[in-house]
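Today's session is about reading a structure prediction critically. Students often jump straight to the picture, but the first step is always the sequence itself: look for stretches that repeat, for charged clusters, for runs of hydrophobic residues. Only then move on to the predicted structure, which in these notes is written as discrete structure tokens rather than atom positions. Here is the chain we will use throughout the hour.
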Amino acid sequence: MGRKPNNTKLKILEAAKLAFAKKGYDGVSIDEIAQRANVRKSLIYYYFPSKEILFEEVWVNSIDELENELFGEQENDDTYATRIKKFIRRYIDFLTSKKAISDLIRRERTKVLDQETWTNARKKYESFLDKIENMLLEGKKNKCINENIDPKIATEMIASVDSAPRKNLLKQLEEMLIKVLLKDNI
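Below is the predicted structure for this chain, in token form.
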């Protein structure tokens, strides 16, 4: 039989995610996370020996959740154009419905990519970007992506739409990305 997830650990991770999303890594203390999780500080250190390790686990779990939402259920009968449209729509929907994760990624993305100590976090985010780029490359091979689109640059654009300040602007960006990426006849 599988082990039940540890509720205390999950509670700490959720509290940390909300705190890091709101104030960023540098703006949050372990004391604050303990208060949010309603646990003793020593209990956090029992599960996570340092703030860096706690942050990295929060980050990796958040990117896992994002990837599962975006890449989890792809129907095999979809055309690449349909897959790309669904991907962009799911991404925008995720950003607007999962505010804590969206804020966390937007706020800490640069730090994760630049920080030497967060190797797993950086690799996880780079893997996420690679999945987007590979999807666009496949779309290009299948002639549904405009020829003049550079998949690497398009990936960076897609990944940075979370910096749009308003929900209605995100929806407009969604439509613009679909129009720019996909060929007119699709």
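Discussion point for the tutorial: The CA atoms of residues 17 and 58 lie 6 Å apart.
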